[in-house]
User: Which sequence fits this backbone?
């Protein structure tokens, strides 16, 4: 092949990877550029360009795939700013899925090492491999968010927000107080829901399902209901002030931890309801609430920023 034929082959390999409407223009521009560079090289060495010179020049210019990418608009599925968030969400999600799946499989009786290997094989094929749906879902979510920000950049513009602001405003806080009052009213006597819905004509089994045990009423219930009730004046104080102050935030965290401790005590110390089904459901919900509250407190602590120079500095 001659030098010009090699350039033509290279240009064709680059252009074929581009959209059809863009190929001819890029090929014309790229061929002219390469021929000019080839002529400069030939003039520099003092003899006509040959196949070896053309090949060396084109290899130095770059792989056709990489050159074609220079003419394409950047396609970013996950933006660099979201990279660590994506990685963190992937690791946390996969770890949770794998651990829960492993605990489920380990509930099988293990008589020997072969049983353990069988369980691990079931866990690998039944949990680990299928769990790859989670990173795939995250790619779709982060990719959709990135596309939305590029499509409507004005909605993604930074806006200053006070750190002590009320999320949702006073209206949301008022609705929260109303919800706590109504919830506390129902929690003190859950069977009231049946009276409201069925006018006291519900089946006896339904009333039993929503009846607390005497042990719970005498031990955990007074503490649990009192701690929940203390959140009401806390939220009213925040509504009046119109913002969160440091003392109110500290009180909120203390109450949240106390609520978690009371719920954990109730979950671990005997039945809450007379009905086994209601008792198990309630304990599962309480466990989820405890986990959510602790994770929320941990995330808020880790996200808190206190500007101060580090001991090592930046340089």
Assistant:
């Amino acid at each position: 092949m001659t030098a010009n034929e090699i350039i033509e082959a290279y240009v064709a390999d680059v252009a074929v990877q581009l959209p059809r409407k863009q190929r001819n223009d890029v090929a014309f521009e790229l061929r002219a550029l390469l021929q000019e560079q080839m002529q400069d090289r030939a003039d520099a060495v003092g003899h006509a360009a040959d196949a070896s010179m053309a090949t060396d020049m084109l290899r130095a210019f770059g792989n056709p795939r990489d050159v074609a990418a220079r003419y394409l608009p950047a396609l970013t599925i996950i933006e660099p700013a979201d990279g660590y968030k994506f990685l963190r969400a992937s690791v946390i999600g996969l770890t949770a899925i794998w651990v829960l799946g492993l605990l489920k499989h380990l509930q099988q009786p293990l008589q020997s090492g072969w049983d353990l290997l069988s369980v691990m094989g079931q866990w690998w094929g039944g949990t680990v491999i299928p769990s790859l749906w989670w990173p795939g879902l995250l790619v779709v979510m982060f990719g959709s968010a990135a596309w939305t920000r590029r499509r409507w950049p004005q909605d993604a513009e930074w806006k200053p927000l006070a750190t002590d602001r009320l999320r949702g405003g006073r209206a949301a806080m008022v609705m929260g107080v109303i919800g706590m009052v109504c919830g506390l009213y129902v929690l003190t006597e859950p069977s009231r829901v049946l009276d409201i819905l069925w006018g006291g004509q519900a089946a006896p089994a339904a009333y039993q399902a929503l009846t607390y045990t005497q042990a719970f009423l005498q031990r955990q219930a007074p503490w649990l209901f009192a701690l929940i009730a203390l959140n009401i004046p806390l939220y009213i104080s925040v509504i009046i002030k119109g913002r969160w102050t440091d003392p109110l935030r500290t009180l909120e965290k203390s109450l949240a931890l106390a609520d978690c401790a009371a719920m954990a005590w109730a979950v671990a110390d005997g039945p809450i309801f007379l009905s086994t089904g209601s008792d198990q459901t309630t304990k599962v919900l309480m466990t989820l609430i405890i986990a959510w509250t602790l994770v929320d407190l941990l995330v808020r602590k880790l996200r808190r920023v206190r500007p101060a120079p580090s001991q090592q500095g930046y340089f």
Q: What stands out?
A: The chain has a mean pLDDT of 84. The two ends are 55 Å apart (CA to CA). The chain has three domains: 3-70, 80-154, 169-303. The chain is about 70% helix and 0% strand.
